[in-house]
Amino acid sequence: MRFIDIYVAxxxxxxxxxxxxxxxxxxxxxxxxxAVGICVRGYKFLTAFLFSLxxxxxxxxxxxFGAGDIKIVSVLCGFLGIxxxxxxxxxxxxxxxxxxxxxxxxxxxxxxxxxxFLRYVNSGVRDRTLYKYxxxxxxxxxxxxxxxxxxxxxxxxxxxxxxxxxxxxxx
Length: 171
Known about the structure:
Oligomer: single chain
Number of strands: 0
Radius of gyration: 18 Å
């Protein structure tokens, strides 16, 4: 295991607990890891962090991610690089989608959520604008994403180690 992986696991572990309990990740925690990232990776961290922050801000603007989520993803990009962080985040999003589907079916709200989503897409296409996704809900059902990013990180790392061992065995 690389030192960067230990940093990322610690960062995501504590952030997951905070996100689960309070639905927030303290900015002090994020700033601490930005400082660690700059010390460890220098300009490579800063470049990937800033680039991803600009991109993920769009996702925040349409309320796909919360403010903490975009900062978490940007720190991950800084530590791991954009390609690796994108793989990790994609894995976490896929795992969270499976859980969300189960949740929507078990609460018998799948149809209403799909209907709302289709109305949202239709109005955006019709009006040629990007609306905030949650504008018409009084209480928006949300789930903390950082634990899913942590699970995505663990699955991604296990898969990567497994692939390396398979390649070593074939030599």
